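Weekly sync, protein design subgroup
Attendees: M.S., D.O., the rotation student, P.L. (late)

Item 1: inverse folding check
M.S. brought a backbone from last month's batch and wanted to see whether the design step gives back something sensible before we order anything. D.O. pointed out we never logged the input encoding, so this time it goes straight into the notes. Structure tokens as presented (172 positions):
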């Protein structure tokens, strides 16, 4: 079963899946399941969330929803623990927030054929932290959707787990 957080739809049954299945089934994208992201989810699930909701938003506006879905899956394609990176930061070194889009786009280019829109979306998804402004409306969309997904993942799932933990403590 493949679901975006907050959605009850089985994604493998939707047209969306046919557009991204080659990326979703790639071993390196599957490997993102090993990495925690936004404390309560995995980098794979976060990327799936960004991909699906970015696809829906861009489709609604009649923008390039296919590129939006594909870039959403690849926007955080890096293979290290975020906390480990943050601990090794030194003066003059870019923050993880500013650095990881560069790593992600290079990893994506090494594994998949990207069009200029997809590349811009991956490179600029952390704008304004990355300082370079997006060139396309879809690139602005992914910056919004990425933040939205992070909030839902952190506060939604986090709040559910915290409440569940509190309830268990109260019944013991």
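Designed sequence read out in the meeting:
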């Amino acid at each position: 079963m493949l679901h975006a957080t907050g959605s009850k739809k089985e994604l493998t049954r939707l047209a969306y899946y046919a557009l991204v299945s080659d990326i979703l089934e790639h071993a390196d994208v599957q490997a993102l399941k090993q990495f925690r992201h936004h404390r309560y989810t995995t980098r794979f699930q976060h990327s799936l969330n960004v991909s699906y909701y970015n696809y829906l938003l861009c489709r609604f506006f009649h923008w390039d929803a296919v590129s939006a879905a594909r870039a959403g899956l690849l926007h955080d394609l890096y293979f290290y623990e975020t906390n480990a990176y943050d601990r090794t930061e030194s003066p003059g070194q870019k923050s993880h927030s500013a650095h990881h889009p560069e790593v992600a786009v290079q990893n994506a280019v090494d594994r998949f054929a990207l069009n200029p829109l997809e590349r811009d979306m991956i490179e600029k998804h952390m704008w304004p932290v990355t300082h370079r402004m997006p060139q396309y409306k879809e690139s602005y969309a992914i910056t919004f959707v990425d933040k939205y997904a992070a909030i839902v993942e952190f506060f939604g799932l986090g709040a559910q787990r915290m409440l569940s933990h509190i309830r268990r403590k109260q019944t013991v």
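Discussion: Residues 11-79+95-171 form a domain with the Hypothetical protein af1432 fold (CATH 1.10.3210). The two ends are 33 Å apart (CA to CA).
Action: P.L. to compare against the previous round before Friday.
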